[in-house]
Give the backbone structure.
Amino acid sequence: HPLSSGDQVEVLTSRSQEPQPEWLNFVTTAKARAKIDAVLKRVRKEVAKYGEIKVLDAFKRSELEASTSNLDKLGMYFGFSKREEFFYAVEKGDVVLPENLKKLLKEKTDNVLFKYVKQAVGVASKKVKQPEEEEAKKEKPKYDKKKPYLLKEEAFERNYVIAECCKPIPGDDSLGFINDDGNVVVHKRSCPIAMRLKSSFGERILNTVWSSHMNASFEATLEVKGIDSIGVLNTITKTISEDFNVNIMRLLIEAKDGVFEGKIKMKVHDVEDIQKMCVTLSKIQNIKSVGRVAD
């Protein structure tokens, strides 16, 4: 909410809160952006150091030399041109190293970005190659890129795959990516992976439109912050479960110094559910902010 001169604000602080990359999307001054960016870079370097240790241990287990060329080759295999970014991804769990690196380093590193993206969105590659004749017989679906692709569900089967990196739900501004298997993987347009795919694989991108998903449910996470008080948690869960008939999957709440913050993972039907829920929860006494976040 943009502030105007004369507005009164209440600042909620928390010792457990750290600067987040999303903050760069709404800060307005260069000074604030520079300070947030500096902290994020420092944290990123610290995380990357632990990732580097894991990579070196993997080389040691595989009885391979952790030379500059081998490190660069391994990073390029997963789609990273910079070593620090690769180490950071390893530590964060975005890249899972195999037990033995020997076989991996012998493979060709062609199309490395696509290999990395497939892993990031959770689309598994085929472990066993079928004979060329059988593959030739299998026809992959054809898509008309001139028309928006309708995302629908029939007989409990969807004609698309939800990307694990951003988990879009009906109502989100989204796009589709045609993977190697011919399936459409749906991302939010604001998803970093989607932006990377769009710039590198434009010919595989589809405009998408959500159809009605009356009986379907999708995962979404709300972040709630406010003043700690007796019964506030019960009010939140009761409102979500009873007023909106929503199934809560996970609830994490932390209270400190009179302030609480927590994340609630639940099953919803669409973005409209989330919007109504945010409005209702924000009216509860001592709730200061409610918003949808990435899990």
Remarks:
- The chain has nine helices and eleven strands.
